[in-house]
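REQUEST ID: PR-0412
SUBMITTED BY: lab tech R.K.
PRIORITY: routine
TASK: structure prediction, single protein chain
INPUT:
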Amino acid sequence: MPETHDHAEHDHAEHDADHPWRDRVIAPVIVSTRAAHGQRADQSAPVIADAAERIGFACRPPVIIPDGEGVLAALSELVVQISPHVIITSGGTGMTPDDLTPEYTLPLLDKEIPGVMEALRAHGRQRSPLAVLSRGVAGVAEGGTVIINLPGSPKAVSEGLEVLEEILPHLCDQVADLRPSHEWGSVDDA
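STATUS: complete
OUTPUT:
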């Protein structure tokens, strides 16, 4: 039995080496006033980095910023200057007055992806009824960067990534319009 398992892992590794995922990058943005001011250590960015590794994406060092207006500037800078394939924010999605991550994410989105957030909240709801209080948004910014808001707790981030690991490679394929050539149509179709 172990030989079959090793062979399957080898085939999977070869397949991944040829896939465009290997060059894809996730940029974590941690929105936490206490972490930004050194009052507590961030625990969400390592969870995001582990998930990125599992799906074959690279992960940038996290940007850690306080709750509030700086979120828009941080996200804008990443989208314009770095253009990662995915930005995952953690924090600022709740109901307190300074939880404004969704409000500062929305202006950057050319297309919203409500189904992603529906799936995240439904998955989280299986573990805690409070998951429905997350107001996070998801969508695609100009240039093709996917932005997804997750709650601030490392546990909620981990649960959200259980969903995202299944869909991020395909979502990035769609955003990049990576379709098999037989799906493109032909000159005769024009």
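NOTES: The first strand starts at residue 25 and ends at 31.
REVIEWED BY: pending
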